[in-house]
TrEMBL record:
GO molecular-function term, one example from the UniProt record: sequence-specific DNA binding
Highest taxon in the source lineage: Bacteria
Protein's recorded name: Transposase
GO biological process, one term: DNA transposition
Pfam families reported for this sequence: Y1_Tnp
Residues covered by the Transposase IS200-like domain: 8-147
């Protein structure tokens, strides 16, 4: 991995995790809940410090840090666990009308990347940006919270339930 994409303990990072093929998986509440529950678990058990987040229909943005352990190691484990869990849920969900198409996209993306497993739920990478100034923090925080507004889902960022901007955010975040 190039030095440009490495992460280090104790630093604040903006990261993005994207579903393969930009499939709108998190438009279904039960799939978004898996992400929420796993982020909460990681806060308690993996030393993940979340300062801001938004879960969109096909990707998520976070501002995070870890005092012990690198963000890259956490991302690897998080993506591995959630991809298995979400793929299993999609396969067994009788209400999932897009099941065959989603599986086809994930299989295609796995083949494209020469993955040894049959499915590729997440795109490779997470594009960490070290937030080493207040200006960078403010810019990324605004970017995260305006994402659902720019996508046309809500008029105000505070109205998107799956965001740290929402007053009743399902994930508790730390203050800067």
């Amino acid at each position: 991995m190039s030095e440009f994409r490495k992460t280090h303990e104790g630093y604040l990072y903006f990261i993005t995790l994207t579903v393969s093929g930009w499939v709108d998986v998190f438009s279904r509440r039960e799939y978004a809940e898996i992400i929420i529950e796993n982020l909460k678990y990681c806060q308690v058990n993996k030393g993940l410090e979340i300062y801001a987040y938004v879960i969109m229909t096909n990707h998520l943005h976070l501002i995070v840090s870890r005092d012990k352990g690198k963000i890259g190691d956490w991302v690897r484990d998080f993506k591995s666990f959630t991809s298995k869990e979400l793929t299993r849920l999609i396969k067994k969900n009788p209400q999932e009308s897009r099941k065959d198409w989603i599986q086809m996209v994930f299989k295609f993306n796995a083949k494209l990347r020469n993955k040894e497993f049959g499915f590729s739920f997440w795109q490779d990478g997470f594009y960490p940006v070290c937030l080493d100034s207040n200006a960078k923090i403010d810019q990324k925080l605004d970017y995260i919270h305006i994402n659902p507004v720019k996508a046309g889902f809500v008029s105000n960022s505070e109205d998107w339930r799956l965001s740290s901007a929402h007053i009743e955010s399902p994930i508790k975040v730390l203050e800067f």
